[in-house]
Design goal:
Layout: H1 6-40, H2 48-68, H3 75-93, H4 118-128, H5 135-139, H6 151-165, H7 170-183, H8 187-192, H9 195-202, H10 208-225, H11 234-238, H12 245-256, H13 266-274, H14 283-293, H15 299-312, H16 331-337
The chain binds iron/sulfur cluster.
Length: about 350
Amino acid sequence: MKKVDLSKFKIQTRSRLNNNKESNETEINVSNKIKSKYKKKPLNTDTELGKELVAADNNLENAVKIKLEPKVENSQNIKENIDNKLKISKLKREHIEIKYEEPTTSKIKQGDGKPYNWELILKNLREMRKNADAPVDKMGCDKCSDEEASPKVIRYQCLLSLMLSSQTRDEVTHAAMMRLRQHGCMVDHILETDDDVLGKLIYPVGFWKSKVKFIKKTTEILKNEYKGDIPNTVKDLCKLPGVGPKMAHLCMKSAWGKVTGIGVDTHVHRISNRLGWVDTKTPEETRKSLEDWLPLELWSEVNHLLVGFGQQICQPLRPQCPTCLNHEICPYGIKYINNELPVKPKKIKGK
Ligand code: SF4
């Protein structure tokens, strides 16, 4: 391989550098010479050349000034700049809370098909009902039987109190049951009782005349088909005159201690719809709809909770929404408080 003589290139490069350096020095020297020449001889600004040289000199001086002199800002500008920087740094430091849009009412269904916030609503209901001082707590159907009687008689009285309770306040039902008990509330004795007397004993429960007939027929069936006891299935209970699904499920719970379904009365139906837990027209639809998603272990509790809640707070006409713990998540409560519910026109007599 041919060896390259690098020393030659080095010499050439060095001479080029020297030339450049010399040329730079030459330029500086020439410019200095010109300057000194003009310094010695003041420029004749009358001539074209003189004018051009003065102009060029001024341009050069301005350019150097712009480049070298720091930009002079007045105090106002400086203050504004500082203020702006402070504002930006403040904005950067401020905590910005990111809020995600969340469903606000229980009418919306969760991923599992249950109403949004239903557990919180239930917790609030328990809190509002913790004193257990509603009429249903003291005078409900499960408080009407003679606890010292035989189990068969207790079950019969339990069924009768449920039959009397339909369309009737707990206080009225309880009072009627106390009169019946005093009279002798047993299958044989009721069958022997005249309808008029029975009517007077149960009056003023709702539909008392019809209830006298239902009680008599039902008692007859119990004597003939069930040896004076009551049926132990919902299906057979519902075959008795004047006994519907609500009564049958409640009776199964209080008479037989079995939870077979949710007892939906007017309170449970109304409140479940207000809360958005169901969207139904009849208590029976409400029962089926509630049973679709409410855990079985809560079926018995929910009836008692909602009945007492309906008696004390969520009344049919004037619910006490502002004081209800659920008023921020209850769709009806939100509308009620904001006066957004449609006003029903008052019925005028004769029209
Ligand atoms: S907010 Fe009003 S309507 Fe809703 S559950 Fe409470 S009392 Fe009833």
